[in-house]
Amino acid sequence: MKYAVEIAGRVVTVEVTQAGVTVDGRPVAARLDGRPGEPVRWLVLDGRSFGIVAVPGGARGRWRLHAGGERLEAFVLDERARAIQALVGRVALEGAALSLRAPMPGLVLRVLVAEGEQVHPGRPLVVIEAMKMENELRAAGAGLVRRVLVAPGDAVEKGALLVELGPGAR
Fold first, then answer.
1. Is 141 helix (H, G, I), strand (E, B) or coil?
2. How far is CA 63 from the centre of its chain?
């Protein structure tokens, strides 16, 4: 099974098969140990052991990690979930700017980017609640946030413009 894993803005592809584990195509000696129902896991990576506490972060694929005294946020999506996210959070061309539109009516829970921020493909932009489910809308491509048109608490209709992205870097 292939996973896209994002931590601190870096995205890697992790593939787990019967033959072993690869990270971005490179084989690594990796094992994850722990007891079912307990949040503490031990990641053994190339012979080194790391204690990790992983707590679901609210949205699908989001995890809050505590490792080595650090708090990190990770996004982990398998191939199927990543394909679904790409459809739900697709970016449409609007003139010269890229835009993120609401795929369905809902309520904006969180805006995860600010104007002027550089984003990469798969980066979460907005979380909306629709049909009592949180939907994390992600960038389908890299770009610069030109405008954020919504705020938490805003009700949006299907097709409403949420975030406008433009090409280029800062």
1. coil
2. 10
CA angle 117, 119, 124 (to 5 degrees): 105
Residues whose CB falls within 8 Å of the CB of residue 33, separated by 6 or more in sequence, listed in order: 41, 42, 44
40-72 pLDDT, tens digit each? 888 888 888 888 888 777 666 778 888 878 888
- The pairing of strands 70-78 and 40-45 is unpaired
| Alpha-carbon torsion (145, 71, 109, 159), positive or negative | positive
Tell me, rounded to whole angstroms, the distance of Cα 151 from its chain centroid.
19
Structural domains of the chain, with CATH: 2-79 (3.30.700.30), 89-166 (2.40.50.100)
Distance in angstroms (rounded) separating the CA atoms of residues 144 and 109 = 22
8 Å CB contact between 118 and 170 = yes
Q: What stretch of H or E contains 45?
A: strand 40-45
The reply to whether the predicted model has a pTM over 0.90 is: no
Query: Distance (Å, rounded) from C-alpha 4 to C-alpha 95?
Result: 30
Q: How many CA atoms lie within 13 A of 52 on its CB side?
A: 21
Neighbours of 162 (CB within 10 A): 22
Rounded Cα–Cα distance for residues 31 and 58 (Å) = 25
